[in-house]
């Protein structure tokens, strides 16, 4: 069983910054790839950024150069540094991980944290 708890969301003006955190417990954090997703009102959930267990990162085109994903395995925590925020970044942000093997696995989601960017 894995528990994921996001924090750090809020209201910020366009051009501002926020840092999201995702605290994980209940599993071997360092052995799991981790992801940030977001879901805006009326839209499908979309993948924002991925960090593998070896700390390789990947980003959606819409956030490249503005967002940075990182992890601190000693603290079982993942981060998303968001700079130069735009109104279109407004969404609920979720952290996600998959635990288990290639054939038997479980998907875990946090409860989400709201990010609102005003113009």
Regions with little confidence, pLDDT below 50 for 5+ residues = none
Strand percentage: over 45%
DSSP helix count?
0
Please tell me what the overall shape is: globular
Describe the sheet with the most strands.
7 strands, mixed
Quick check: average pLDDT? 95
State the order of secondary-structure elements, H for helix, E for strand.
Answer: EEEEEEEEEEE
- Rg from alpha-carbon coordinates: 14 Å
Task: Kindly summarize this structure in a few lines.
This protein has strands at 3-7, 10-13, 18-25, 34-39, 46-51, 57-59, 67-72, 77-82, 91-100, 105-109, 113-118. With 119 residues, it is an all-beta fold.
List keywords for this structure.
single chain, 119 residues, mainly beta, 7-stranded mixed beta sheet, 4-stranded antiparallel beta sheet
Notes on the structure:
The protein is an all-beta fold. It is 0% helix and 55% strand. It has strands at residues 3-7, 10-13, 18-25, 34-39, 46-51, 57-59, 67-72, 77-82, 91-100, 105-109, 113-118. The strands form two sheets. Strands 2, 4, 5, 6, 9, 10 and 11 form a seven-stranded mixed beta sheet that branches. It has a four-stranded antiparallel beta sheet with strand order 1-3-8-7, with no helix packed on it. The N and C termini lie far apart (40 Å). The model has no long low-confidence stretch (mean pLDDT 95).
